[in-house]
Amino acid sequence: MMLLVAMATLLAQTNAFTPTLSGLVAAPFSPFNTDYSLNVSVVPSLLNGLVDQGVNAALVCGTTGESLTMTTTERMALAQAWVDATVSAYPTFKVIVHVGAESIMDVVTLAAHAEKIGAHGIAMMPPTFFKPSGIPGLVAWCQTAAAAAPKLPFFYYHIPSMTGVTVVVHDFLAAAQGLIPTLAGVKFTDYDLFDFSRCAHFGKNGTGHGPFTMLFGRDEIVMTALSLGADGAVGSTYNYVGRAANQLLTAISQSDLATALEWQRRIQNVVVLMGGVYGAGVGKAIMELIGLPVGPYRPPQPTLNETQKTQLKADLEAIGFFQWR
Q1: 187 counts as catalytic
Q2: Is the whole model's pTM more than 0.85, yes or no?
Q3: Is 278 part of the annotated catalytic residue set?
Q4: Which structural domains are found in the chain, ordered by start?
Q5: Of 94, 156, 187, 238, which residue is the catalytic one?
């Protein structure tokens, strides 16, 4: 139980280059019109939906945001829309911008733009075609991105299932610590909990504070990651199960393991529909069902047809989603 109590303290920790990230960070869907053009007009509604669920930060233009299907100009426009939406309505809401791309020139452009518009940080996954050569190559790639936004915290975005870059993140942190002054932490989307635990305890001193913030990206096992020392969580499901995830966090902070497990299982039931029954097209369909339509996915990702959406609604009703969310 000591681990569960400690989690509440860990969520509040920051370091010199870390924005005040705690609790849930949503990975928003990028909104498109039916012709696949960008539709930034819905961003304020999406932001309201997150705040209403107790989500206090967003990592935009990432995997859920279909960033690699978008042009650099579109990505800058969407990042601008998110920052603009927060300025007057929710000034404490944090916007982290994903700047990863296949071209280092696009990376630099996106990172510099994020700093210029007043984002609170940048994150970057590695390129997926010509991959960095081991830890040294990855550190060098990240150095270039971080240097383009020297005033912003930099988060390495680890998602080997998508990028194919399978480094040991603990080793990356050890190599990058003295070379990237703005390195603030990692968005860790992987099931390697041993590596994650080592990262979460990297360089901790006697007070329990470490130099890096670890944000976990597998929503279906976030409870386990929190017990291992996660500082917060980043995920797509927090667009529509943010309240449930916050109930999980509250239960853990109160050392109520049984309640936390129940909320985790409910989130897992939704993830099962996303991963196996319908596949990648589920997230945007759920957004439509809760009254926050974000349009279709860009190809090659599938968009559910009307028959599939009807069945999805029935399956969500069967697990009580519309009651407990």
Answers
A1: yes
A2: yes
A3: no
A4: 2-256 (3.20.20.70)
A5: 187
